[in-house]
Specification:
The chain is built from 5 helices and 10 strands, in the order βαβββββββββαααα. It is of the alpha+beta class.
Length: 263
Amino acid sequence: MEDHKPTSFMFEIDNLLEKEAVISSPHSQVEAANGMQTFIPKGNGIEDHLALYLYVANYGSLQLGWKRRAKFSFVLLNQSGKEFYKSTELCQVFCAQVPGWEVTGNETMDVGGLHVLYSQAFQVSWIFVRHPDTALNFRPKSHLVKTTYMNLLLKLIEKLDKLPHSFSETELSNTRTELVDLTQTGFKLDWLKEKLDVIYLERKKTADASRIQELEQHNKNLKAELNKEKIKSAASAAKVLWLEQTVSTLKTKPNKKLKLSPN
């Protein structure tokens, strides 16, 4: 196995979000570190993702049984040059069988002290930007517990994005219970409570409007039935009046035959 002195390098990309084409590390860095970084700003088939590949350059020319060990991380800065978030530093072994590694989205990274999937990083970062005190009092010692509760919070946020009328009474009750449970763990979720209250109110308005419509239709049906009964009653009254007149005529003219109406 050939000797290889430890080397390090940093690959910086300005205005990453404006890039369209594949970006590779400069040739000078490749020669210095015998490694290559490649970025695909628009993701590898996924528009809203960033794909990152790290592999050994020209590995076919290396001696049989070669190996390289590399530590690497990914740092994203905002427009002010301040660190927005940094991925967990990974250490991987490169060899002829595995000459490259990629970020698949299943790896975790640290965002605000929470270990989340790369695919969740943007959403979690958005929460802390819009609601910076969300996890201020959320301090479980176990990273696994933190990750579990964060996943529950993300699912709750996704659920509350549904339209109010799509919730059943049971779903609303369960959602409120989930919100209370997460609040008790230390999350400050007043903004989600307000959103849930709005859903309750909108759903109540929809239910009230539906109930009013049902009552109006019921009232309309009753009026229709009443009109039918009035018509029947008028017909019955006319028949009774005719019978009374017939009886009266028979009493006054007992010896004269009358032609009775077939009705």
